[in-house]
Amino acid sequence: MGMKKLFSFLVAISVLLSGLFTPPKVSAEEIGPGYSFFYTKSKLFQVKVTRAKKVRYTFEYVRSAKGKEIQEGAQGGGKTKNGTYLKNIYAGTQSSKYFIPHNVLRGKLSVYATDVNNDLDSHIYTFVIKKNKMVITAEE
Description:
By secondary structure, the protein is an alpha+beta fold. It has a single domain, classed as Immunoglobulin-like. The protein is built from two helices and ten strands; from the N terminus they run ααββββββββββ. It has helices at 3-21, 28-31, and strands spanning 34-39, 44-50, 54-65, 68-79, 84-90, 92-94, 99-101, 103-114, 120-130, 133-139. A hairpin with a 4-residue loop joins strand 1 and strand 2. The radius of gyration is 24 Å and the shape is elongated.
């Protein structure tokens, strides 16, 4: 076999094989919702969900007050804007004039999202607060 024929043969084989090893393209509809959870310096818990139509959440936490541990919680949710849901959750007591943050020790955030295909998806964060920083101890 001449060099030109050998080269042509190798190019043809590489073109055929490259189609076998190219990963398929995945659309956002196939990926599902994306989740993130933050604790800010102003003691707000921030939930962000992308690639979703609707979101609902349950936020449960344990706080300390006068040497006792007290359980607290909040629920919420709503429709997304351009596929993104962003919510700041305040862990504290508030009146029309005052905001008193709770001393959060640990908790759990459960987030449920309806994706663009109307499938229900969920993500659960378990966390502790150490030295004013959130440490996520488990994710499901």
